[in-house]
């Protein structure tokens, strides 16, 4: 016989042996009753004023009437265009973009000067070749990329979908679809534009979509057609009406509109619209009306590229280029002044000197006429301009394209690194930005999200506090259950979940006993709330391998899987199912829950989704006995303030629950508070009136819905709390420890509560037991100011302007290498305080601050105080922070220091932080791909950051730094040394080697000027040794020029050979091949009789003086550099040099276990 059990005002009907049929007539009558009541309520006055049609200029969409919809031709078509150029605009637009590089303007000016007849030093045409080559290569690359975009756009625009034309559905190309047209989409097809659902193949108007192409989330999401239109569509009737919606915007998570249909007006929200790029799943077909098309769709509005970032090294190059330009002008001025003095001294001899003529001396008409002589002042000025053209090579144009090629190669090595492949998600490393590779080797601050970045974002239900009693999950066993009937109900009849959930046997026994009392009712409502208060989609199948599909069979054993936008909700609903409360059906108007084999149908009257202001979610439910309840779950910070305080027992339960929450949070678990209450008819009527008005408003709908939610989210009865575990990703503690040893500060910015963040910080070794925690939790500007001031006074934090005086490099006389304290450059050094607190001051500090305090600090004049304290701490934890606050914290460091910042996250709430940082890294995680799409680099797990920075970052910085210096030294040789460096094993074993990037050892202003001085010395040696050697000889200008040419080629290659760390085939070919090819070219050119240098090399090569001169040039030019390197490496070796020598020793003597000093590495 059917068993009936009543808990409070709820009824459950057992239908274990017979297939249950839904009481359609009753639900229909209730729906009609509610609808008529809603209409009566709307006639009453309400507090909301909606002047939308006149104030906000809404978009009017006439269903199935595109001509009337776009009668003013103000809406765009559905054709999209992602390309930059057209055939007409390509050349001017591309050149305009390229000439944003100032160096290109410099070379353009040089080429223009060379076109003037008095200044044609290299020939008018030849002078244009270098600049034209660089411009053409870049233009070809840009043109090819844009051609691919054109091809992709053409394929996309020519796809076809079914559109109502002449009263029936016909195929129509996507690019010709217009707003107002009705479109039909079949299963597994892609949505061509943003459409409001009118009907689906499901009679209730339910549809499942996958938004992976839009935001990367693989979970299915539900969308609903309004019952008013869904029934008409399902019956085959034509639908006509008017939709008033907001103007196009890029917010993919919100949609505000209302629809007028059959004389009624009802609201439309995000759950009623499907967006372009989504795919239809598990639904045969849907029909919708186009509201946004083409470039106005939310997908296209969100397709903007991430902000352009420029390498820090490249900005240094611009500084050095400016210095070289100044030096170039000084050199040219000296040459011009010397030219003027020489002309003045020989002004009477100009008619007889070579290259100068005042008049023509020849027979014919030109005899006696003025030659190319413009007077001493103009000749001096032309000499200045000619010198600029001659010395232009000092600023190498080849450097830019060489850097691009090197960066491309570096990106290839990073992408192909098998150690950064994530097997769990099947994702490889992505290099989405090619111009900041070397910045990876100079990172000083890492700002990390917690959930999904440090943790797996795969939630598991662990503990629960139900009506003041703590329950903990354990392995489910039949022996732990006390009754055979309970075993049958809990094991045999329960649904098969995708993954097993551990349950508490005591709680399971309690739920399956026929007991009365407040505790039993609270436990029942607790799990009903977990099952009902969510947006999770149940996917039912006959068994775990039968795929996804809805099933109407009740008596057969079924497998169930839950799809939802939030992993937290999925974990809670799965936990409720494990305890016997299985959500197995959801429509727009009701849900069905299997309670230990009893079917319970609940009508959903309204849902207030979670938002960052309320930090809670609530659902208004009508039970079968017509009682109305509001079920609420949310963060403890906002839930306890809206609980009822009626009795002493309520206060006791509240205190016990709070202690449980503190315990859960200290263990690193994510917590939520669950509460509920009954609604009276008057409260329901008031709420329905306000809810209907707020949900149909197009002005401040979110704010009005929050006000409406406050009507029912009050005086709640506390039911309990949940604790969910979000496990750490593999390798996170090791990665954080390695980054810390490398001198990188890791800050965690999370939306979790403070206790949870601290616990995760301890488990991932971010926080240590010896750290002193500075906690800033202020509720006003004055309170925050006092907390910051007290912390600065107690721990002796210096003001920001004094940090540079104390954060200097210290020299270690024991091992002779330079070491940087952790707080150098941008951190304040702590000064010891007198008295008993002195030992505490010497301990490392950790700052823990909440988002509420940041509201007052970041928006007031307290930023400098926060900066002083934060940079004095080894660790900073920011809890309960909003997305913009994350960006504000990054900007706090970025705007006040020269240190490089990196932000890493996996969710949409991390995008602003990722774009604010110098380097943004996205994690391919559970929260979609918005973070990846906004990032510069993307990878599968946080642990790969260790290898990305310590190995590839080090390699990239060292190689590009040497490349730039070598090009400034001599811009004619490609830097093949970039292929060789310390091994990845050494770099990972000794993270402190990364400090070379912090100290700018590979490239800095001092190194630049040392290189320039060395270059000046080599140039003087190169010029004067041949001059003095052949001073008394009769050698001509072609012979001395040939000597200079071959000498400079040999010199720069020997210079490069001194810096090569390992000789392989490619380095031998590059160095010696360059010299051989140069000699071969000279032999060929000197063998052509028509050239003035005919047979020059053959005469020179016969003389021993020629070869001795070249040898002397090489020795004298490179001797200072050689001595400097030897002395520096012997007496002041760098960390990298020590590690490199240790590598060589290990390879040379396998049996000798020699390793570098731990402190110096």
Automatic annotation (TrEMBL):
Keyword line: ATP-binding, Magnesium, Membrane, Metal-binding, Nucleotide-binding, Translocase, Transmembrane, Transmembrane helix
Q: Which reaction does it catalyse?
A: ATP + H2O + phospholipidSide 1 = ADP + phosphate + phospholipidSide 2
- Entry-linked SUPFAM superfamilies: Calcium ATPase, transduction domain A, Calcium ATPase, transmembrane domain M, HAD-like, Metal cation-transporting ATPase, ATP-binding domain N
Q: Does the keyword ATP-binding apply?
A: yes
List the residue ranges of the region (Disordered).
Answer: 798-821
Q: Pfam family example for this protein?
A: Cation_ATPase
Q: Locate the P-type ATPase C-terminal domain: which residues?
A: 932-976, 981-1134
State the InterPro entries in the record.
ATPase_P-typ_cyto_dom_N, ATPase_P-typ_P_site, ATPase_P-typ_TM_dom_sf, ATPase_P-typ_transduc_dom_A_sf, HAD-like_sf, HAD_sf, P-type_ATPase_IV, P-type_ATPase_N
Annotated membrane-spanning segments are: 322-343, 381-401, 1037-1056, 1063-1085, 1105-1124
User: What EC number is given for this enzyme?
Assistant: 7.6.2.1
Where is it located? Membrane
PANTHER family, A to Z: PHOSPHOLIPID-TRANSPORTING ATPASE, PROBABLE PHOSPHOLIPID-TRANSPORTING ATPASE
Q: Report the protein name in the record.
A: Phospholipid-transporting ATPase
The way this protein sits in the membrane is described as: Multi-pass membrane protein
Q: Does the keyword Phosphoprotein apply?
A: no
